[in-house]
Amino acid sequence: MIVGVQPMAGFDKLLHYRVPASLRADVRPGSLVRVPIVNRQKLAIVVEVDAIPDCAPEKLKLVTAALHAFPALTPDLLALAKWMHAYYAARMESVFEAMIPAAVRGEANVKEEKYLSLARTLTADELAAFRKKAPQQARLCEFLRQQFKPAKKSLVLSRLDCTAAVAAALIKRGFVREETRHVERVAYADSLSGGGEIVTGLPPKLNEEQAAAVDSVHASLAREKFAVHLLHGVTGSGKTEVYLRAVEEVLAAGGSAIYLVPEVALTPQTVSRLRGRFEAAGHQTVVWHSRLSEGERLDGWQALASGQARVVVGARSAVFAPVHDLRLIVVDEEHEPAYKQDETPRYHGRDVAVYRAKLANAVCLLGSATPSLESVVNVRAGKYQINRLLRRVDDKKMPDIQIVDMRIELMRQRGLVTLSRLLVDHMHQRFERKEQTILFINRRGYSSSMLCRKCGHVEECPHCSVTLTYHRADETLKCHLCGHERGAPAVCPKCAAPDIRWRGLGTQRIEEAVRRVLPRARLERVDTDTMSKKNRFRQILNDFRAGKIDVLIGTQMIGKGLDFPNVTLVGLVDADLSMHVPDFRANERTFQLLVQVAGRAGRGDRTGEVVVQTFTPKAEAIQFARHADFDGFAEAELGMRKKFNYPPYRHLVHHLFRGRNPEKIQFYADQWVKRVEKTFGAAVEIRGPTPAPIEKVKDEYRYQVWYFVARVTAFVPELVKMQNEFTWPDDVSQVLDVDPMSLT
Ligand code: ADP
Ligand code: ZN
Known about the structure:
There is one protein chain. By secondary structure, the protein is α/β, with parallel strands linked by helices. The chain has 5 domains: 2-105, GIY-YIG endonuclease (3-Layer(aba) Sandwich), CATH 3.40.1440; 112-182; 201-393, P-loop containing nucleotide triphosphate hydrolases (Rossmann fold, 3-Layer(aba) Sandwich), CATH 3.40.50; 400-447 and 504-640, P-loop containing nucleotide triphosphate hydrolases (Rossmann fold); 651-738, CATH 3.30.70.600. Helices cover 33% and strands 24% of the residues. A hairpin with a 6-residue loop joins β20 (476-478) and β21 (485-487). α7 (208-223) packs parallel to α8. The structure holds adenosine-5'-diphosphate and zinc ion. Residues 204-207, 210, 233, 235-241, 393-394, 563 line the site of adenosine-5'-diphosphate. Adenosine-5'-diphosphate binds at residues 204-207, 210, 233, 235-241, 393-394, 563.
């Protein structure tokens, strides 16, 4: 047998090897193997078997080893890898690296341990017979009987001072079971999945809208053909219940399902709810998140690759789970930019989910209260089916949204205003009534930058063209791009005025403002700094749920998927920040932010209220969000996109050039653009080269080019080919980003 493999050795090329008879059973398409490359053993993925090499077969070298008994990539994943390679302009090797966790590639610090346990209880007669004929085997069985859980083989053997042959005999005869577990060399004390907070409970009876959506997805599943459903349901309409029913149906029929959430750490409630439901029905559920230890990751992967587990819940990389017989992929909050990976391969988890479902003839179920305009356009084009949930569960009212014009507020209160009177009044009421409030803010840190009110000076990073962020805790100014750091000045470095103002708001500043107006309230703050501390976030959420916190302050990252019945007030302190950024998706982001944030209010019996503070109350995104008018917003926004021929009407590809010498970069970028224009003509619209919004990072200058194209697959592979043929100087590096989610 001859196989074609893609090595993980720093280059994209198909190499051929012969497979020795001893490895034939374990070498299949998608298998991870080791092969010799110039006297070195390298990892490789089997891409094809029974390949026809371009030289005499007997000249080929032999595959050295197979890493696992199961292929790392199922046939649909292999096909998906080829598509990602072409679509996202990513090297094959980097795609495989994204698909196969390091622990599985054998690159992590994990070792295997064998564990023994009794396969069945021995009768008294059997034991007696054993004692006579094979006293050592009898001792081993008796020892294992006293253990409550599988015991480490090496320990058992040394304790009883017996050889591996004794255990082997028992295993062969079916008395003892041997299993392999993966243990960390460095043990981790805690992990998210380790916590036992599994939520169980009887599934609710579906309401009419939910039942109609479930029926519609059911019909697609029954057809066993590729289909995409967009579940567009207002916040609190019970979308999760629809996803759950679909997954349960797939599992009951013996198929597998993948359930994607934007960020596992931010949705602990959802994850426990899912695990509770699936595990109650006897389905081992793998939870896939960034904080798994390598050993846990390998065990979870193996459960999926072996078919022992058929459902996985996780963030975007879970879309590559090697499950057998994939029938369904759920993508919750499909509009979330977090699905886009910002390092190579720069793939979009939702789009990859749709394409994988297509390759596997499976159903992809996308859901959101604020679907992306990309998905809306796909519904309009008849590519996706739409299922709508227009009402909240139990007909709970949608929250009332009130807009505060901060310009007027500023004149009234004179000076810097953090909390408007309306918001403060409402917070007082909640506090008196023992109800809870959540305050949202757009950014992190105490305040974003340092601005002198007198001369207008703003402190910038000497290495990057961005403002420095003021961190109050240690009185420093820090650059979030390169990490440059220095003490915060007491007076303006330019005009020496003592009057230094901190522009923008941060969670800390809001906390101080709330303390002033509600000194007796119990406050807690969640931001990226809190999130970096293990378990802190979970602790805060538990306390909040238990009513030990009156006001929760956080960046919008806590706005996802949280469901607290006692929250009746939500304040969005700075609605503008997401709007005044140079990105054509700014309106869409603002609308989504408002609707999602508002959706956290009034999930219990009382109607929720939302207060939105803004300097631009007339903005479309704010007005449509206020009336919860998604269709109106989509119509207006799509009109604008159509006019400028922006996505979703065309695809956008970003090309970044980097280097220390700005003239040189500009020169090469100019030459390159001319070449692209000549080759593609009217098929591509080019903007640039221009300096990137952040011109300099770590002393490297950045230039960018934007390409607008109708079809990615007709453009990107060709562009990459041209790029490889173009002669670039060594000190100009470049990055291509297809369908970028952020323009800043
Ligand atoms: P969404 O994801 O649409 O915002 P959820 O799925 O989180 O909404 O549902 C909101 C709440 O309603 C959850 O607490 C859920 O358990 C509950 N729920 C969902 N469906 C029903 C139903 N048919 N009957 C009663 N409660 C339901
Ligand atoms: Zn910097």
